[in-house]
Amino acid sequence: MTDFVTAWYLWLKALHLISVIAWMAGLLYLPRLFVYHCEAPPGSALSETLKVMERRLLRAIMNPAMIAAFVFGGLLLWIQDWRAGWLHGKLTLVVVMTVLHHLFALWRKDFAADRNTRSQRFYRIMNEVPTLAMIGIVVLVIVKPF
Known about the structure:
Blueprint: H1 2-7, H2 9-39, H3 45-77, H4 85-112, H5 120-126, H6 129-143
């Protein structure tokens, strides 16, 4: 397996980055849809449209992109130095993003059932968390401060 990863390293890295970009797009857009959904009266045409958009975004883009990011990232981990501190920091932030992904999926189900109880402000704040995680990951991977 090490020979495969080494031979295909740059391709795996490119595919991992493409997957992460698609995943991040969804992590940034879905809570923004939730902000708009808070304004829509349950059962309205806007609410029903947002339900479809949220479901399609999660199932057609975010879930496959997250899985692909995990697969390609997992292969890249095969040849990493596990003692590197930056790698532990990055993986911790990946766990944060994964938890957010699943929270967003749960909240989408609340909207789908017309039982959301959270405010626009809550979703606006949650919209910033993936950005902070992304900034941390990029700094850790590029700068490798420890």
